[in-house]
Structures are given as C-alpha cells and as structure tokens.
Amino acid sequence: MTGIQIADRLQANGIPFEQSLPEKLAVYLRLLGEWNQRMDLTAVEGEAEWLDKHFIDSLTVLKTGLIPERGRIIDVGTGAGFPGLVLAMAQEETEVTLLDAQQKRLRFLQAVTDELDIRNVKFVHARAEDGGRMRELREQFDLAVARAVAPLNVLCEFLLPYVRIGGRALCWKGPALAEEMEAGRRAAFLLGGQMGETILCPVAGREWDHCLLQVTK
Fold it and tell me: What is the per-residue pLDDT across 16-37, written as a single tens digit (0 to 9) for each?
C-alpha cells in the first residue's frame, strides 16, 4: 500500500497529519506484513484491514484533542505498536514509552523505529502489573493508553498506576464497554480515578462500534 493511499484514508477520516506521516505508515505497514509471517503480531488479514483496524483506529484520537503535543505517554500492552507507535510517529514532540510482556514484539517495534529513525520512543519489557510498580514508571506519565488489552476494570488497574495526579488513562473500547462500565467505574474509584466521557470514534466506511473512554486520576 502506498503513502498516497494511506493519505487518502487519513483525509477520509478527518485525521490531521504531517506530510511525512503517510510514507512512514507505509513502511510500518510493509514491516508488519513481513514480520507477521514469522510471528503472531495480528490475526487481522490484509493490508486494507490492517490500515483501518490498527492504524486509522489508533489515530482517530488525534481529532479529540486528548493527546498532548508535548508530554509523556505510555502504551501498556502495546503489542504490534497500536496505538503507541503510530501516535509517536504522528506527534514527534511527544515522548512515548511502549511496554509489552513479549520481547519478540519489542524487537519488531525496534526494527520499525530503526528503519524510520524514530527517536521519541522508549521500550520497556515488563508485564503491565509489574511495570506499574517500578519507581521509574509509577505516576510518571501524562497519559496511559491501551487498546484491545483487557476488560475496563482490569484496564483501570493496569493503567492508573502509571498516571500522574491530574493525568489520564485512555482506553480504546468496543461494543462490550456498556457491560463493563459498572465494574470499571468501581475500579477507577478505588484507584483514585474518575470516569470521564465516552467519545465515539468511527472509521469511515466501517460499521465498527469503537469508542474512547477517559479516566482522570
């Protein structure tokens, strides 16, 4: 898939982007395909599906104003880099930490950042619950994000320890959110968080019921 095709999808979804981003995403997409043949990075099949379900879905948050242009973000359970790495590529002044329990995934992400000379990314090999107890990570971030990781109550337990007072956790969620809200609200309260609004983030041409939920600490 070309940078021009990716730019068209970004524009179709009203996502703001710098001129260099589509070509960078094209390289990322190519590397995802190559590495996915050797390891299980995504179960989604096909470049068009990867682009919309992973890249565009991650970047729709840029329309909301929830991502600080300068600040510190941690992506907990980043997997193949969604949403953390694509956000780092879109906002080069933002410092992004990618945390995952599987070293092989971090090796893939390191390969992407090396190929594209991305310098605003750090890597941490740790389980989500362990990283939140590390002094160098605990309450050090303006924003902790996660996408397709766990139910909402578990996400609150994973994310809020990383967030500074006044910062936020941001969860990418699907249709199951309604069933998870009550338990999630209780977990957030116990961890010093307050549930915020839910923001719908549709992807043009797709019937996915995707949204973002923010929790302020």
Answer: 999 999 999 999 999 999 998 8
* Structure tokens belonging to residue 3: 């940078």
> How far apart are the C-alpha atoms of 18 and 14, rounded to whole Å?
13
* pLDDT tens digits along 66-123: 998 889 999 999 999 999 999 999 999 999 999 999 999 999 999 999 999 999 999 9
Residues in Cβ contact with 68 at an 8 Å cutoff, skipping those fewer than 6 apart: 94, 142, 143
- Region 125-136: mean pLDDT is 96
| DSSP state for residue 136 in the 8-state scheme | T
Q: Is the dihedral of CA 65, 157, 154, 125 positive or negative?
A: positive
Q: Are 163 and 97 in contact (CB under 8 A)?
A: no
Measured CA to CA in angstroms, residue 17 lies from 114, 170, 190 at distances of: 21, 21, 38
What is the distance between the terminal CA atoms of the chain, rounded to a whole angstrom? 40
Distance CA 200, CA 197 (A): 10
Give pLDDT, residue 209. 85
Q: What is d(CA 49, CA 36) in angstroms, rounded to the nearest whole number?
A: 14
